[in-house]
Design brief:
Layout: E1 3-10, H1 14-31, E2 36-40, H2 45-51, H3 57-64, E3 68-73, H4 77-80, H5 88-98, E4 103-109, H6 122-125, E5 129-135, E6 147-150, E7 156-159, H7 166-181, E8 186-191, H8 197-210, E9 217-222, H9 223-232, E10 239-242, H10 244-257, E11 265-269, E12 275-279, H11 296-308, H12 313-328, E13 331-332, E14 342-343, H13 346-360
Parallel strand pairs: 1-2, 1-3, 3-12, 5-10, 8-9, 8-10, 13-14
Antiparallel strand pairs: 4-5, 4-11, 6-7, 11-12
Helix pairs in contact: 1-11, 1-13, 7-8, 9-10, 11-12, 12-13
Bound molecules: nicotinamide-adenine-dinucleotide (NAD).
Length: about 350
């Protein structure tokens, strides 16, 4: 049976960057024998404008019928003042929850050609290869009760709940240990167990799960120290396992070590291997519609989709090689541009990756 890939362009730069990944996907279908069909759907602000809600039933139905989903990004100023339930980001949280996408894999890998674009000196990031495993459907972003209430003295008070069950911690810990077993065999679990009870339990459960993985070495680190260590000596990390909130922040931080937030892909996986793939950045409204956004994180997200949901390892590797080729040729979007390289637009970068793929065949 031919598998379906659902493409959700989203808002802001989403349609521009997703179009480049679709060029690559179309090339793989037409020229490399990849057997998938492509569908499109609405999510986020564009869905609110068209249907009144950020996650339309039609999108969810298409998502359930797909082997994997490729997303651009959602959000933008136009929808920020809407009631919370109608905001684009709620659509993203809702699709993650509805599809059980609890495991977020966020690799921070430095292409050697971009060492000069890193915010750290080259010697600190050469060969950098970290995998951040972030819990994605629990913790502070989903905990109830939440809201903004007015107190007796008339002051407004905002509140959220950090809550994790043993089951939620155990299943994400197992993902991290499995991933580490296929890499350099080390897990650093990041928490704030000295202050937050929810992460005291996190530490306890992760320690218990580690007993089933004797070949993997486990270390615990407080999140404030982990942030410091990421900019002090990032190569000490192999797999970083952490909560929804901490993973969100640490992976943006790690992105700058690799040159640009426009370089980092991610996978959100369910138990059955289906998944949603997206760049870690947002919809970048400040540069939308200008043909200057970097589409490589989205194209790398397509590579992860091929690897994790379709087991098309060779094609996934081929995309990585093509991107490496393009960077070696000195082509750069504005965010990673430096002296001695040629600055090109979003669409030209997509074309360059397709050309590089063709030259590898
Ligand atoms: P952002 O990631 O969109 O942008 C942060 C900075 O990085 C901006 O200066 C932007 O121009 C730059 N940037 C981002 N992606 C880039 C790319 N591919 N190429 C070059 N430069 C890039 O974060 P933000 O500005 O905090 O948020 C903008 C909107 O995106 C908000 O509405 C936010 O809620 C939403 N958002 C969505 C997601 C998602 O869809 N998963 C994630 C984060 C933020």
């Amino acid at each position: 049976m031919t598998e379906k890939i659902l493409i959700l362009p989203g808002d802001g730069i989403g349609p521009e960057i997703v179009a480049q990944a679709e060029k690559v996907l179309t090339y793989l279908i037409n020229e490399c024998g990849l057997k998938v069909t492509i569908e499109h759907g609405l999510l986020g602000g564009s869905a609110v404008d068209a249907t009144g809600v950020p996650l339309p039933d039609a999108t969810l139905a298409k998502a359930r019928g797909s082997a994997a989903i490729l997303l651009g990004a959602v959000g933008g100023v136009a929808w920020e003042s809407m009631e919370r339930a109608l905001r684009p980001e709620r659509g993203l949280l809702a699709i993650r929850a509805a599809l059980g996408l609890f495991a977020n894999l966020r690799p921070a890998v430095l292409f050697p050609q971009l060492a000069a674009a890193s915010s750290l000196k080259a010697e600190y990031v050469r060969n950098l290869d970290i995998m951040i495993v972030r819990e994605l459907t629990g913790g502070l972003y989903f905990g109830e009760p939440r809201g903004i209430r007015t107190l007796d003295d008339g002051q407004r008070q905002g509140y959220n709940t950090l809550v994790y069950s043993e089951r939620e911690i155990e299943r994400i810990a197992r993902v991290a240990f499995d991933v580490a077993g296929k890499r350099r065999g080390r897990v650093c679990s990041v928490d704030k167990a000295n202050v937050l009870e929810a992460t005291e339990l996190w530490r306890d459960v992760v320690t218990n799960v580690a007993q089933d993985y004797p070949a993997v070495e486990l270390e615990h680190m407080y999140v404030d120290n982990a942030a410091m260590q990421l900019v002090r000596a990032p190569k000490q990390f192999d797999v970083m396992l952490t909560t929804n909130l901490f993973g969100d922040v640490l992976s943006d931080l790690a992105s700058m070590l690799t040159g640009s937030i426009g370089m980092l892909p991610s996978a959100a996986l369910a138990r059955d291997g289906s998944g949603l793939y997206e760049p870690i950045h947002g919809s970048a409204p400040d540069i939308a519609g200008q043909d200057i956004a970097n589409p490589l994180a989205t194209i790398l997200s397509l590579s992860m989709l091929l690897r994790y949901s379709l087991a098309e390892i060779k094609l996934a590797d081929k995309i990585g090689l093509a991107i490496s080729q393009v960077l070696s040729d000195g082509l750069r979007t504005k965010d990673i541009h430096s002296a001695g390289t040629r600055c090109i637009g979003t669409s030209a970068m997509g074309d360059a990756v397709v050309q590089a793929l063709a030259s590898l065949s």
